[in-house]
Each structure stands twice: as structure tokens, then as C-alpha cells.
Amino acid sequence: MVNDPFQLYRQTAVDAVTKVLSDMGISTVPGLEVPPEGMGDFGFPFFALAKEARKAPAQIAAEVAEKLKIPPELGMTFETAGPYVNFQITEAAMSKTTVDALVAGGLDFGKGEPGGEKLAVEHTSANPNGPLHVGRARNPIVGDTISRLLRFSGRDVDVLYWVNDMGKQAAFLTWGLFSIKGSALEAAEREKVDTEFVRYYQKAVAMNKEDPRVEEEVNLLLRNYETAVSQGKLADVIFAGGSIQHDDVEYKPIKASDIMETCMKVLDGMKASLGRMHVSYDEFILESRSIQDNTVEQVISKLNGSEVSDTSEDGARFLELESFGIQGRNTKFTYTRSDGTSLYTTRDLAFHKWKLSTYPDTINVLGEDHKLQAKQLAIALGIMGFEKPPVSVFHSFVSLPEGKMSTRKGRVVYLDDLLDEATGLALEIVKKNRPEVSEEEGQRIAELVGMGAVRYNIVKVQTDKKITFKWEDALNFDGASAPFVQYSHARICGILRKAEEQGLDITRQRLVEAAGNYDTFSLTTHDHKLLKTLAQFPSLVQDLAADLRIHLLPEYAQTLASTFHSFYTQCPVAVEKDEGLRDVRLFMVMATKDVLANLLGILGIEAPESM
Asked: In the 8-state DSSP scheme, what is residue 479?
């Protein structure tokens, strides 16, 4: 871990408590907890030791405290509070350790040392049949934030997108695109390929409700596609036309490659929307690859050899999962159709076979409606010999309150609509608060504020909790919001610019040199509080990277920004008469800017120098 100010104190406490417990004949060491404010910086609860020690937790705590030995020069004290032993670090000790760590870490303060095995994070993987909609907007934001956090913590991460080009939705889209006249459709709402193509998908689905022959043709297209892919005949025509006589239908021949190309074109539109939110991927993997490289055949062969594999009356193959705790109608996990062709579940297993063979650790970001599917997948992977299934991060969905964004008739609300609305509302605020800025500058600020507002407001809610997205919360410049944190960063940049305009030397080298003399000055409680808040950043990064509780990142960002505002209000900085103390505080301002910039970077939010 790089320059963690708290690590010295925590490790000292852990070592001291471990020794005392060992001397008492107790082998279990409780984990550290953060006690309520005012009761210490961290502490040990002794509830779990009662059975082993055959003593009440409070008695264990008292005996441990009586025998504990902490070097007085460390500046850390401890006391009991019932069944707890809580440790408190003095302001002077904490500030000295923090300044030393900030100096050593520089711009990389809080960043973990590279190491550990390579990790894959798969997120979004939405069907490429049209634009992303608001309800699913949480997945790419959660997945991207997790990926950024893990990378900052030191992990080597590949971000993957599994492109479903073999599902019925892809077939419906392609059938519609090659069989429906463009003149039969209403104009697209925006000039964007996914928005333009989704009209064909929607029309094909609507036609299918009136004429079941549409689905028959789509199913034929899908079967022929799988055959062509398995044989490597992507240039072959797999559907030359059907029997539907309709004014809106004009068949064009469809090659196997047309389905792939159609999906990738839609994906380009989806990537543009995701790019506005600073979401990116390392690799897009077509589902059809698992057919091309025979991985699906390997999966089917492996599952066929399982003791729980069976055949249904129509010839479909399935796994009977009742013995694994699956109940009701979900016990049968079907992996081939009656004609022997694969299902999405089979290809998903093939994809995970590749992932688990390539990456020692994998994470899947999934909607809460995929919990059963993830459980079945893990069981099937176990049957295939993979003992370590992917870590699944489930999230609830995003909804909008009644109003303009949620009452449009005839379709869902797309992510593009949400992003446009965010930018538009942010622009109104910018024009009101800063009428002097140019139109171009106003648009730039509105875009970064709007995108930040969307990401921050979604991440700040625990992933398993539902979100009703409210603009008054997301764009609040004074509350727990991205604009407030972004403004804090911009304000700090302004403070440093003003100091430079006053002729002060604010180069990093000069301020680092000044920080070396910080303990010769009398710092106030506000100085110490800011330093202590900065000190929490490295541990926060490592702790959250371990348990993926990304909702605590915005919480810390809000705390740091608020603490800085209190510090700057109460403590003179550029106008401080004592030059030494002034330079030390300028160093603290610079360090806060660095941490806020890194924190916003993890959140995928731009850190502006002016707003």
C-alpha cells in the first residue's frame, strides 16, 4: 500500500492486541471497526471472543487494555468502552504522518502499488438492438466505477463487453432492417445509428403480433446464422426472403456477416452514449465467437457427461439442479434445444469458460433480475470443473419521477434523453449564475456538470437500493452532489491561481519543501481536521476495492469538499502573515486538489479548473 498514514497506527494496534490475546491463550483476533464519532479512530470489538475465552466481552476488553503496550512516542492512546478497545491518534501525530505521506505520494497519494493477478470486469453487455434506456443506465456507471477503483488500487483490469449477436433480438433487428421499407417508419428522433435502427426492430416486433410468420422467419434466420457461423461461412446468404405480402415489406437477402455488422453498428451508437459518460471498454467480444472457436461444443460435451444431465421429451438437453438448492420450475437448466442448437445460456457458459481460463479473478455487474441466472451459471460452471465462479455485483434499476422525462408515450426513455436533459438543465444554471461566459464555455461547463451529476447521483446510492433520479438532488451545487465536489476542485484551482497572481511561488517543489517544516507552526483544529480527512483516502481506496462498496466514494468526496470549505473559511491561506505557515497551508490546498482530482477520476467525473 502506498503511503497510507493510518497503516502505521492500525498495524501497531493489531500487533499489540494480537500479542496480548496470544498471551491470554486466545487465537482469534477481531477485525478493526470505526467507532462512533468522538470515541476514537478505530477499535476492536470482542463479542466474537466470548465463547473461546469463556468470559464476557467487556471483561476481555478490560483485560486486553490492562496489558496493552503502545509506544508513547507514536502519539496513539486507547481506552475501553464496554466490549470495545478504541484507539485515538493525537492531532499532532496524525498530521505529521499525513504530511509525510502526502509529500512522499505526491500526485499518486492513495494509489495502490501495482500487483496481484489480472482481473476482468464485465459490465453493460446490453443487447445491441437499440439505444440504452434509463432503467439500465446504472450498469455501465457501476461497472466503470468499479473498474476505475480497482485500477487505482493497483489491479490490472480488463473491461469486457459481451455482444449478443446470436439472440432473437439481434435477429428481429436484422430481419427488420433487411425486410421493412424505410418509408414505412416514422423519422428517427436523432441522427444516431442506434436510434435509427431501433425503429426497424420495433416495427418488426409490432408486425409479429399481427402475423406470427415474422417470428417463424426470424427463427429460421437465427438457425441458419448459427449453422453458417459454425461452418465459417459468413459470406453465405442465410435468408433470401419470405412469404409475407405487405406494403411495408421488401425482402433483401441477408448474409451471416450482416447480422454481425448490424449489431456492431448499433453498438457504435451505444458506445457514443456511453462515451459521453466517460465509460469505455478494453474488448468487445461477439457471442458468435464461442460458436466459431468450438467452445460451445466443448461446453455441451462436458455437460452431457454430467450425472445431472438429462433429456426432455422433445430432445432438449438440460441439467437437473434441484440437488443444488434450486427449487420450483427453475430446476431444469436447459442448454440445447431439441434440434441440438445452442441457447444463450450455453454460449454464456462458453464465454465464462474462456474468461475463467484467461483471468484468475472475474467480476460480473448484473441487474437484480439476473440473480437466478447467475446462480444457475455458477452451478453449471462448477459442474464443468471451475471452482471459483465470477463475483457478481447486482444492482437495482433507475426510475424517474413523474414528469417530462417519464411520460413520453410509445417508448421507453433512452439514456441519450437523460444526458441531454442533464446538460440542458445544467446550462440553465450556468447562464443564471455566470451570464458573462461565452456560449462555448457555458456548454463545456454544462456538459461536465451534467455528466458528473448523472454518474455521482447513481453511484452514491448503495447498488442494491432502488434509485429515483431527481434533478433537484443531482444538480444541487450546495448539497451532496457532483457539482458541489467539482466546484470545490475548481475553487481550489482558483485559490492557487490567485496566489500565483500575488507573486507567490506555488510550484510543487517549493510547496513540498515548505511542508517539511510544517510542525514548527501552530496548526489549528481546522488544519488538523483537513489533514486527517486527507489521510483517510489510501485506506478508503484499498477497503472499497476489496468489498466494492463504491457508494462510499461520493460520501468521502462530500466529506473532503465540506472539510476543505470549513478549513478555507477559518484559516487564512494566501493572506496569512506568517510566510512559513502560509506555504504549509498552500501545500495542504494543493494536496486537497490532488486527492479530489483522483477521487473524481475514480468516479469517472471531470475535475474542472474553472466553473
From this structure: S
| Res. 402 pLDDT band, cuts 50 70 90 | low
Query: Strands of 361-367's sheet, edge to edge?
Result: 283-286, 157-163, 119-122, 361-367, 391-395
What's CA 510's distance to the chain center, in Å?
A: 37
pTM: 0.94
471 Cβ contact partners less than 8 Å away, ≥ 6 residues apart: 421, 422, 425
Q: Could you please report the per-residue DSSP string of 126-138?
A: --SSS--BGGGTH
DSSP annotation of 33 reads B
> What are the structural domains, with CATH classification, of the chain?
5-89 (3.30.1360.70), 168-264 (no CATH)
Indicate the residue type of 420. D
413 burial type by CB count under 10 A (0-12 exposed, 13-18 middle, 19+ buried) = buried
Residue 408: its pLDDT value, please? 38
Which parts of 101-156 are beta strand (E)? 119-122
Q: How far is 601 from 596, CA to CA, in rounded Å?
A: 8
- SS3 labels along 367-415: EHHHHHHHHHHHHHHHHCCCCCCCEEEEECCEECCCCHHHCCCCCCCEH
Is residue 176 predicted with pLDDT exceeding 90? yes
Instruction: For residue range 147-170, list pLDDT tens digits in order.
Output: 999 999 999 999 999 999 999 999
Indicate the helix (H) or strand (E) that contains 589.
Answer: helix 579-602
Which grid coordinates are listed for 203? Answer: 416495427
Q: Quick one: which H or E segment has residue 13? A: helix 5-23
- Average pLDDT of span 76-93: 96
Cell 500526485 -> residue: 107
565 closest CA partner among 488, 498, 496: 488
Cα 266 to the chain's mean position, in Å?
Answer: 23
Q: How many CB atoms lie within 10 A of CB 342?
A: 23
**Cα 5 → chain centroid:** 26
Q: Which three cell numbers stand for residue 493?
A: 484551482
Residue 156 phi/psi, 5-degree rounding, is: -95, 110
pLDDT at position 340 is: 83
Contact 192, 269 (CB under 8 A): yes
For 498-561, the DSSP string reads: HHHHTT----HHHHHHHHTTGGGS---HHHHHHHHHHHHHHHHHHHHHHH--TTHHHHHHHHHH
Pick the closest to residue 553 from 609, 507, 592, 596 (CA basis).
596
CA separation for the pair 66, 73 (Å, rounded): 19
Candidates 380, 350, 378; CA nearest to 366 is 378
- Angle made by CA atoms 517, 97, 574, in degrees to the nearest 5: 45
Q: How far apart are the first and last CA of the chain?
A: 34
**Greatest distance between any 2 Cα atoms in the chain:** 90
**pLDDT, tens digit, for every residue of 252-292?**
999 999 999 999 999 999 999 999 999 999 999 999 999 99
Cell numbers 461461412 correspond to what residue?
233
Where are the strands (E) in 193-316, listed by range?
237-239, 254-255, 283-286, 309-311
H or E element that contains 141 = helix 138-152
- Spell 488-519 as b/e; 16+ CB within 10 A means b: bbbbbbebbeebeeeebebeeeebbebbeebe
Return the C-alpha cell found at 260: 454481425
How far is Cα 467 from Cα 395, in angstroms, rounded to an integer? 10
273, three cell numbers? 452514449
Task: Calculate mean pLDDT across residues 175-203.
Answer: 96
